[in-house]
Amino acid sequence: MINNDLLLQLSDWYEVPRHQVNIACGSLLWHYDSLEQALAAAYPEHPWKSDRFQKDSNWSNPANQRAFLDRIGKELGVMEVNLNLSN
User: Fold this and answer.
1) CA 41: distance to chain centroid?
2) What is the pTM of this model?
3) What is the full per-residue pLDDT of the chain (87 aa) written as tens digits?
């Protein structure tokens, strides 16, 4: 069950597993494909970061891997990625 005492900031939603959302408010997700879409509709002014939401098999999806690496690279100041693996 979602503990409302722990949802003090909008960013706290990133840590809520989908199965808990389904239990607490499953009908909400009938109208949206994801918790992220529902929250973006309710709070469009908040800069939601897709890769921070709890996802099933998060790391098996290359798009999720790329989104994470792009975000963390920007936070760390990575300017360029060299994909040339030959020496």
Assistant:
1) 15
2) 0.54
3) 455 556 789 988 888 877 777 777 767 667 777 788 889 999 999 999 988 887 655 567 787 778 778 888 888 898 888 887 775
